[in-house]
Design a protein that fits this description.
Elements: H1 3-13, H2 17-28, H3 32-41, E1 49-55, H4 61-74, E2 79-84, H5 93-106, E3 111-116, H6 124-138, E4 143-149, H7 158-161, E5 164-169, H8 175-181, H9 184-187, E6 190-193, H10 201-212, E7 216-217, E8 220-221, E9 224-226, H11 235-252, H12 255-280, H13 285-296, H14 302-314
Parallel strand pairs: 1-4, 1-5, 2-3, 2-4, 5-6, 6-9
Antiparallel strand pairs: 7-8
Helix pairs in contact: 1-2, 1-3, 2-3, 2-6, 4-5, 4-11, 13-14
Bound molecules: guanosine-5'-triphosphate and magnesium ion.
């Protein structure tokens, strides 16, 4: 490990926020030094409670995060917040808005807030967000809140990153139906129906309860909680439920199993990424051109051309057997 990297590791161990911020940037950029820092800190991770908040744009996720951060710090917790926004940093107006609105809680010494938007990370944003959560964990945050926009094919599968997934919806524009279609209700540990001050909230909460049909997750019945995050109403109940969910998993003996299942998916994602690089990285442009010609002229199917490319990549001399 280089001197700079060792300094960042020491910094994180010693509670230095700048070292933490720099290290997250390295992870975000897919810089190998980020990986070295994670490796050096791996024995310090696994202690924090990771809470994901996902849901359609504008449902009130950031407003709820702000309430939860305040409640948590009042309870003596050290809190990390990751706002993961896959939209381009150049058009990410919402993110900037979040930063501004977050400042009231961000100044607290026990709060560390970071937004992530880079697509440059190895294995994509999902892997980077999980790794950043590991760093926050090693930094000594005991609760980590991770906000992601959940619409359709979300880039970040919050269920892979979080122990407890809060799906935040609002009574407007059929959020419940959309959430069901997008598979969001399937990953929910808790559904928060925010903007309960808006008309149609009671109806919407009944609809969502019907869609959930008393869905159970390891013997936990997914509750629907009503909040008005803007006025901080019902938010303490959300936090209480988050801890109840954690206690439930621990009591049922499913906590470790669930953690391992998530680790397995993360390893799988990382392995797939490595595999792609290992195979595709060995192909020259000419190999691709030939494969395209084969298919275009009807001499091979797409699947055959792909199989040929993969075996060609594997057959290149000098490849170490078993290199991951
Ligand atoms: N009426 C009402 N408005 C709310 C409530 N909570 C949040 N809002 C408003 O809804 C808007 C969106 O809130 P955000 O917290 O930024 O929503 P978000 O889900 O983080 O949005 P994105 O990050 O852009 O996906 C803001 O103008 C909030 O002030 C609520 O309980 N009632
Ligand atoms: Mg937000």
């Amino acid at each position: 490990m280089g001197g700079g990297t060792a300094k960042l590791v020491d910094g994180i161990r010693g509670g230095d926020r700048v070292s933490l911020a720099r290290s997250i940037t390295l992870i975000e950029n897919g810089d190998p030094r980020g990986e070295a820092i994670l490796a050096a800190l791996s024995s310090r991770t696994g202690r924090a409670l990771r809470v994901g908040l996902t849901g359609p744009p504008g449902a009130g996720k950031s407003t709820l995060v702000r309430c939860l951060v305040r409640l948590l710090t009042e309870g003596g917790h050290k809190v990390g917040v990751l706002a993961v926004d896959p939209s381009s940093p150049f058009t990410g107006g919402a993110l900037l808005g979040d930063r501004v609105r977050m400042t009231s809680v961000a100044l607290h010494p026990n709060v560390f807030i970071r937004s992530m938007a880079s697509r440059g990370a190895l294995g994509g944003l999902a892997v980077a967000a999980a790794a950043a959560a590991d760093l926050l964990d090693a930094f000594g945050r005991d609760v980590i809140l991770i906000e992601t926009v959940g619409v359709g094919q979300s880039e970040v599968d919050i269920a892979d990153v979080a122990d407890t997934a809060l799906v935040v919806l609002s009574p407007e524009s059929g959020d419940g139906i959309q959430a069901m279609k997008a598979g969001l209700l399937e990953i929910a540990s808790v559904v928060v129906l925010n903007k309960a001050d808006r008309p149609g909230a009671d109806r919407a909460s009944i609809d969502i309860e019907q869609m959930l049909a008393l869905r159970q997750e390891n013997g936990w019945t997914v509750p629907v909680l009503l909040t008005v995050a803007e006025r901080d109403e019902g938010t303490d109940e959300v936090l209480k439920t988050v801890f109840q969910h954690r206690d439930h998993l621990v009591a049922e003996g499913t906590w470790d199993r669930q953690r391992r299942a998530k680790i397995r998916r993360r390893i799988r994602l990382a392995a797939e990424h490595r595999f792609r690089i290992a195979v595709l990285g060995r192909l020259a442009r000419q190999d691709w051109d030939e494969a395209v010609e084969e298919v275009a002229t009807g001499r091979a199917t797409v699947a055959q051309a792909a199989a040929d490319l993969v075996s060609h990549a594997g057959a290149v001399p000098g490849v170490e057997e078993g290199t991951p």
